[in-house]
Automatic annotation (TrEMBL):
Pfam annotation, one family: HGTP_anticodon
Protein name: Proline--tRNA ligase
Gene, per the UniProt record: proS
Lineage per the UniProt record: Bacteria, Bacillati, Bacillota, Bacilli, Bacillales
Enzyme Commission (EC) number: 6.1.1.15
PROSITE patterns assigned to the protein according to its UniProt record, in alphabetical order: AA_TRNA_LIGASE_II
Amino acid sequence: MRQRTYLSPTLRDIPSDADVVSHQLMLRAGLIRQSTSGVYSFLPLGYKVLQKVEAIVREEMDRAGAQEMFMPSIQPAELWQESGRWDDYGAELMRFKDRHQREFALGPTHEEVITAIVRDDIRSYKELPMTLYQIQTKFRDERRPRFGVLRGREFLMKDAYSFDVDFEGLDQSYDQMYEAYKKVFTRCDLNFRAVVADSGAMGGKDTHEFMVLSSIGEDTIAYSDESEYAANIEIAEVNVRYKPSDEAEKPLQKVDTPDQKTIEQVGAYLNADATKCIKAMLFNVDDQPVLALVRGDHEVNDIKIKHLFDARSVELATEEETVKWMRADFGYLGPVHVPEGVTVVGDPAVSVMRNLICGANEADKHYTNVNPNRDFTFDKVSDIRMIQEGDPSPDGKGTIRFKEGIEVGHVFKLGTKYSEALGATVLDDQGKARPIVMGSYGIGVSRTVAAIIEEHHDEDGIIWPLSVAPFQAHLIPVNIKQDEQKALAESLYTELQESGLDILFDDRQERPGVKFKDSDLLGLPIRVTIGKKAGEGIVEVKYRKSGETVEVHRDDLKNTILEYVNR
């Protein structure tokens, strides 16, 4: 490709609205341009990388036995209402009405559509197992689009769906996709971990996120420093055995704590450590009040509360709800004399403590010397806190450490959530109708491109791994007006292309400094510079990743490049 007429507009300055390296470099290198908040066009260079990632995904999906298809972005509301997600999915679902006032959504995912297709066309267990996939644009109305294509409102995604007769079959399909994902992200040269995760609005259970380790990741991974254990911090179990306190119980007292609302304020005011306080938080769990109790130095995990109650919705109670249910304000909540109808759930750490401090459900008042089972009781005791660094690993091996990660893939065992809701059944070997058992598997293709850049760059620009590089080599004559350089460049360009190599030929009439800066910014694996030794047939080869440079005769150039790209 000739660069003079190639749409690859580079920028010298870092765009003011680009906060992370991948966003900065994708804009500066001319890979993308923004249309509106969270919506981007991929320019030719960026689109070539996108296609390279697509090709890797497609090859591994096909190798795993999945069949590619293509489904519409516009999805009728009726399907989402059948599954129950029309109301549950939330504001991220882009909804609209057509001219006949019929309701539709722009698909963020395709469980409903694919289940309806299989429901109507698959009849017998003999036709299963089956895995279907597509690579298609998805839409989510993000509250706060940011980080370029890492969190956009329109993005390219590979979504796959497996269909099995039973859960044993699902386990096999899931394992196949899990292994395929490992191959995809390994081929993209990413440092990733597969972590246990929460299924969220997708439903189902047994799910893993594929996380690229990155300092700008929006998710935190809890991992063991001595084993392969890794989980999203929201789902990581706490494996701590708390020793019951041997303190003698003291008389309960109500004390004044004017304007002292937080654990830090109350602890300082009463000269008590956070570990001697109860942190009480009120949640709206499917429109029912739940008071969650953790130790003062711990944090409540709302995802664990959702799983504990098998709830569809868990939200922190509003100020109005708090007053209605607890007859008290934020900052003064506690489990003593809880109003009827409020469920009290406590973390195990709280259940073994003695002589604690908690809110008195009265403005400017707290209790001291509060003791579980004497002054209040639990409706449930369960692990409801966030795991912390330094906690024992849930698998019993090592200690928990934290890292940030970018989610690039997610695999779910959906079970029969969608097949039961939409009536997708097959006849088993006994002639009995049974719901199809499903799995769902997603890869953020455009997000993967950004994650690759986050991991592979330096201060000068992108460093593309060979597997996804838009071109394999950058051919640069220092002075295109110089006859010997131009002639050699044209000859090499033709020869290298004919040998099957993908070459970007910088035939622009630009200063050498501009060409070299653009070359480093674009980050192609090999740079071939044609300069003063063109008359001798000598060119300079520079490898972007290592910075190594060698002089090569033009007759050896093709083999030099082929050996590097095929190694």
